Amino acid sequence: MTTAEMTAPAQTAVRTITFRDAIREALLEEMQRDPSVFIIGECIELRSAWRTTKDLSLMFPGRVRDTPISEAAIVGAAVGAAMLGMHPVAEVMIGDFVTTCMDELVNQAGKMRYMFGGQTDLPMVVRIPTGMVKNGGAQHSQTLESWFMHAPGLLVAVPSTPYDAKGMLKTALRGRDPVLFFEYKMLYGIKGDVPEGDYTVPLGQARIARAGTDATIITWGSMTHKALAAAETLAAEGRSVEVVDLRTLVPLDTAAILRSVEKTHRVLVVDEGYRPASAGSEIAALIAEKAFYALDAPIKRLASPPVPKPFSTPLELATVPQTDDIVRTVRELF
Amino acid sequence: MLETLDERLGLDDEQLLGLYRRMLTIRTFEERVKYESSAGTVLGPTHLYIGEEAIAVGVCAALRPDDYITSTHRGHGHAIAKGCQPRRMMAELFGRETGVCHGRGGSMHIADFSVGMLGANAIVAGGIPLATGVGLAIQLKQSDQVIAGFFGESASNRGPFHEGLNMSAVWHLPVLFVCENNQFGQYTYASQVMLVENVSERAAGYGIRGLTIDGNDVMAVYQAAREALEGIRRGDGPVLLECKTYRMEGHNVGDELYYRKPGEMEAWKQKDPIVRFRACLQTWGALSAAQEADITAEVQAEIEEAVAFAAASAYASIDTIYDDVFSSDYQVTP
Fold first, then answer.
1. Environment class of residue A285 by beta-carbon count within 10 Å: exposed (0-12), middle (13-18) or buried (19+)?
2. How far is CA B65 from CA A118, B135, B146, B206, in A?
3. Are residues A51 and A178 in the same domain?
4. pTM (2 decimals)?
5. Contact: A176, B327; criterion CB under 8 Å
6. Fewest C-beta in 10 Å: which of B6, B111, B188, B241?
7. Chain A residue with minimal CA distance to B110?
8. What's the total number of domains in chain A?
9. Which fold has domain B13-313?
């Protein structure tokens, strides 16, 4: 679906660094490379709530700016600046806050190029720390990226590893289209191998996170890690489970989804977001439409029930798919 | 500061006639749009600028060609004043491929980036955060350009007005916020929904300068905009310029005006900005009867040609509906 090509890292050292440092490294390197890249958001100058912009304001004076608590203006200003050829990065500190800038995301960023007949590029990235964090409560825990599959004109990135976080953010920052870059808050601390220096990962190509032959788990973001843990457990039982990490929801790598389903004939879709009318629903519908006769069992889905995230720990955990839930549901495919 | 000027503000006859011609072009265009909209050749919801011509023309006369504007659902006047060709606008309103947005935008999404017209917006106040972002881009590029963001008085009741003005103020962005107070938010009198008499009073809440002027006096608008823009271009930060006017037509073509106070329209017709300016020009000896007749005939011929051009133009091929949702880097799957 995308013409972007993956560029291999040059001969450089590979370190093990955190997801948050991978994000910061992409921002830093792209700001060095391209003077039109700048960052706006709330409390980001010294480090940001998630420490992804630490010290960048000192290295790039005037290009990393604390804003008023004004999400509509943060995203709207990014749209306006992008129309003039700048490459803004707008940070919406908590994913739930997209509700306060939906017009700027959906009606402005997503439609400008089209409704103006292709007169403008919109090279902008909206970084959205997202998903459940411990005891965040109902307004700091949501996983809302599915909403933006329903809004034309927005690319939706959901990296699950430090390597992809850096490479995909670089691709987003070099593009010509608005990218909503969802960073799972629970993943900021995970570590992974990341090359020093420049490399990119395309938007629109899924990754086989684990190869398998008996069943497929299709997922993205935070749930990739739970799916991999589940696959490990299932391997001990003699079940070979493939894990497909979508990496982007828009573009959706439908070929990779169908290829895996046609190989394993059994599929579970795991989504941290609310179940009704979700990305998981769309993927299940796609498989039913395009690969029904390849299936040996009905499609299964795991997602959050449509209840506000409760605060209390046991209740909260019960509203999000866990590794045990994934293991149990995969068993039900057989 | 301005030097002491005569009532002609230092403009020569040719410049004064240029203002008159633009105002008359807008009026003639809009009267024809009203007719064509009723006839069904102009498609969709249509909002006329009749009665407000002095504002767009006065402000845009004070802008440089390389400056920018953002506009509103009532944006035909802004587009013409900034230099957009009436024939390509009319073709857009007819929904044709030759339209300035290739028939993808229509009346409420006219944009012409080639003349710095960065788009009309069908979301009330939607353009304000975008103007903020354009101002930010100009500042980051260290350019001496400016942007004039047009909006109505009722936009000042929405959150993006507050967020956009505040953010522009704290960063001293080069934005002239032009409030066209035409007294109505759709079918509701502005006085019913805001207690301040002047929108410019709200400027104090952002620590910026606000002023209210007669928006039906093109010379007053030009003078105020020119003076404000001098400071804005110097880096003094945004100004809120409120232009009092009156919507001489309904909210949209087809509005039955059931809500309008009797006699009000007749009173405002005495203040018609074109009639008033014509009288000034005649007093100053800048407009002879022969010149007036020539300009009228030329403008009418231009609009006539615009309609013929639009009517003779084709609709875009249905094969193109997926074009320009994204850049050519990404394609939409049907």
1. exposed
2. 22, 16, 10, 29
3. yes
4. 0.96
5. yes
6. B6
7. A116
8. 2
9. Rossmann fold (3.40.50)
